[in-house]
Amino acid sequence: MAFLALIAHQGPDQDGFVRSVAGPALAVIDTFEFDPVRAVNLELLPRGGDIFIVTYIDTALDGVVITVSMDGLGIIGAAVIGTLNIGPALTELSIVRRSGDVHALVYADGAVTGICRTVNIPASGSPITAISTLSFGITMGGTTPLTQVIGDVHVTAFQSGGVSNGRWSSFTITAAGAIGPLITTVIFGPAGTIAGQVLKISESGAEGVFALTYQDPAGNHVQTVAISPAGTLIAVRGTITFTGFTSRAKLVQVSGTVYALAEREGASTGSIRTFTISSTGIIGAPIDSFTFDANCAQELDFEHIDTNLFAVVFRGGDVPLTQGTMKTITIDTLGNLGPIVETLTFDAVLADFPRLELRGGTVIGGPDLPAGPSLSMQEKLLLL
């Protein structure tokens, strides 16, 4: 399958970039520097069509939400479309689409207080306007992943202040962007815990189930939790642990109950592991594992491209071990991991906080775009 992806990352001078990549034969098509001074702790979310949302912390230590465009040929717009500065921010601005134009962000402000903010981002990408803001009144550090679990109930995970243990909290966000107060806060990890991701597994009338990835001194973990429509804890359904260390693990659905976790093990090794998670949150035994990079794989992101094709982006690869690298890998519907298909260095110097998202709809070359490492950008353009 031919595809287009957008990568957002911090460059060698802390400047912010987006790059478009075409596949399956990986090649960079276009590059745009959206902030020439400083863009750290980036997050990336597709708005729909040509529009993508980037969140980051700028040189003034303010949180910024911008929109950029990438068309069906992979050409990136020459200017930022919309911008909203939301004030002091010390953690990444985790962002999800709530409904229509309404999007929600969770982050820690300049006083390390947890904040939820809703914003309106139209399909055109501009203007970006604030809807509502709520301070949770609690200290939040590390990362603050966010997801919708059941109805209006959302969950964010974070490192708490002082004792620095891992906690998740539930609260409501309506389709119109109104934010409710915290409902429940639950400790899930010991001191030194850093949350990686919260991912919705299922939703029924009786409960919502989500998976939480996190790192603590004992290793990398995936835990599944069921909560009620009122946002209260029903039960922890399962936990699986992999010995190692990671600054960010990413869990994606492969097919049905099969899931894959990309993580950094030890000081540098990049690995993918597969296992099952049922709709009720029961975690099965490991199915397969694969090392996709033995040198260095830090600050990774991981996405399902199509059917059996997956992609991981990370800082590492070859010497000097700071390069921006993208690799595609096969995983079949049973969770069996295949070989690396393609490898791309999208920044030969340094790429911090790389984030990857696909562009939906018609892409360059259409469904019959040939694969193969010898396919140049000029050859791809001739296919149009």
**Secondary-structure arrangement, i.e. CATH architecture of the domain at 88-355:** 7 Propeller
Query: What's the rounded overall pLDDT mean?
Result: 90
Label the overall shape. Answer: globular
Determine the oligomeric state from the structure. single chain
CATH superfamily heading of the domain at 88-355: YVTN repeat-like/Quinoprotein amine dehydrogenase
The amount of helix comes to under 10%
Distinct helical segment count: 1
Percent of residues in beta strands? over 45%
Total count of strands: 28
Give a brief description:
The chain is about 0% helix and about 60% strand. It has about 375 residues and is an all-beta fold.
Please describe the topology of this protein.
Elements: E1 3-10, E2 16-23, E3 27-35, E4 40-48, E5 51-57, E6 62-69, E7 82-88, E8 94-99, E9 102-108, E10 113-120, E11 129-141, E12 146-150, E13 153-160, E14 166-172, E15 184-189, E16 194-203, E17 208-216, E18 219-227, E19 233-242, E20 250-255, E21 258-265, E22 269-276, E23 288-293, E24 297-306, E25 309-316, E26 323-331, E27 337-347, E28 352-358, H1 377-382
